[in-house]
Amino acid sequence: MYIDYRYVNVDKRVVLVLRAALLVFFALLVVLQTLSLPGQFAHMATESPDMAYLRWPSTALAAFLILCVEIVVICIWRLLTLVRGDRIFTAASLIWVDVIVWSIVAGWIAFAAAFLYVGVHADDPGLPLLMFLCLVTAGVLGLLMVVMRALLRQATALRTDMDAVI
Predict the structure, then answer these.
(1) How many CA atoms lie within 13 Å of 105's alpha carbon, on the beta-carbon side?
(2) Which domain holds residue 119?
(3) Which of 32, 59, 82, 94 lies in disulfide reach of 88, CB 3.0 to 4.6 Å?
């Protein structure tokens, strides 16, 4: 099998840059999850006492949704490790893609419940429409990951067959 090392070096550089971006993204998510959003919801509760009862449910929902995104980032990191080791077309990669899909599903369900609550109680259609857009976007990403998982499964089967032939 011929390996073009020009592409291998590009792959390593892209993986390195992507990992650096994932580290920054993950750090920002942790700050948002632990400091910014809880503080914002506390401030909103003091500014609008009639909505103070939503402080803790909003904080919990936001923390859960960010946790779902953090899980996706960790899974992408693990998949990059498999790419770097040229082991992406193995059964181990399917596990990480499954975790990504289930994390998106869990976040989608939680956000859909919040969307229904906001939609029922909203006076203005702006926020429900924005939430619906986010809900559809997350659904599309989830379905895209299911398709990507099917493609990865097929590529893994083909690679296994090719390795058996060689």
Answers:
(1) 9
(2) 7-165
(3) 82
